[in-house]
């Protein structure tokens, strides 16, 4: 759930890149760090093994200009994709507002994608959340490779929430910002809907 | 703060007063209130201290959560305090509410026992200051949310509109 800090004039959202190992989560967040306007980004922090595999998480804060007196902040995280790090994944998704599920499009990674997707549902359920209640974008990565599933087939198989989906190549950046744009707009719309459900806006009456 | 995760000005002002009082007594290099999700509520850093508050908040919350889970694996379910003793700086983290942590970074010359004692005394007052926001106030302040969402949507479009990015099928 978003943290609305009215005193500091900030709304904070947590976006998590989820998916199987070596699927492109860290590469996606690294691309965002490399290409986004310097004034917006904070420090990229990675807790990785010596082989540069994510051990705990990568973290990148983004701070947008003020709108209506409120500063919007997105904290981007990745989870470690390797199956043995499930305890870490559970910790990283605490308080999540939106998820970019990064799937590896290669045919031989199909089982890994399915396992990661089901694992996401399980871990969210354990903390009382559901993908249906969060912002969610499916990012079908490695579309530049040969031997990949057609995106439509991958989508039929994985996208059980009928969420938005994007094709990507995280190495070159294609699709990375599109996925991020989509999920950030979803989480803001959800906060908006929750707020409007609480009281009608007098200026619109 | 409770489930709504909304922090009002009055709540933060009360918490900041308490943090200032604690800061005067401990002269820490950094003192901050963060959420268990890794967001900073408020923080103060001494002059010259490298204040990477966003990174600090995400790492502190992650570290605290990981250590708490380790404790639970050993059937210790009352984990509320964490201490790192470094060569130059010590880091003390204590749970204030279910979703708020107090983080204090202090020099070796400051006695750890003093930090534990004063921070421990302060957590109750901080928890009270951060108590649930009155619902009617929260509702009033969020009434302009649709206007905000429209404005942020435009900012996001501009920010993520990368020239040359391809969006079509490969």
Describe this structure in words.
The complex is a heterodimer of chains A (205) and B (170). Chain A has helices at 25-35, 86-92, 110-126, 151-158, 176-198; strands at 3-5, 10-19, 45-48, 54-63, 71-78, 98-104, 135-141, 164-167. Chain A is α/β, with parallel strands linked by helices. Chain A has a single domain (3-185), classed as 3-Layer(aba) Sandwich (Rossmann fold), CATH 3.40.50. In chain A, α3 (110-126) links the parallel β6 and β7. Chain B has 170 residues and is of the alpha+beta class. Chain B has one domain: Dynein light chain 2a, cytoplasmic (Beta-Lactamase, 2-Layer Sandwich), CATH 3.30.450.30. In chain B, a hairpin with a 3-residue loop joins β4 and β5. In chain B, α1 (9-26) runs antiparallel to α3 (112-129). The longest helix of chain B has 21 residues, at 53-73. The interface between A and B is large, with 66 and 55 residues. β1 of chain A pairs parallel with β1 of chain B.
